[in-house]
Fold:
Amino acid sequence: MATYVIGDIHNSIKKLDKLLTLISPTMQDQIFFLGDLFDRGGADPDPVGVYHRISGLNTNEKWIRGNHDQLFAEYTNFYYEPAEKKRNGVRVYRYNSFDLMRKRLISDF
Structure:
């Protein structure tokens, strides 16, 4: 059994996949994700892909929200909480995660 700690992925599915390939976790391994999995991102930002990849691991994983993850969660709740007609007045999210998530989720259907 091995224990791994991963943080600051910032929407990079390539970075996450590279790390997971490098460590090749098994069902007996434990992975701690120490936050900032979302927001910003370089050439390959994919918050939905990062979420699905981590959720699909056959390991014992624990998540700790980083400040970017918290901002993203709060904005998502804030955006979807009011009725749709009231969303027009909601400020734009400062990073690309929210728009990427919406586009990806809508195109998946």
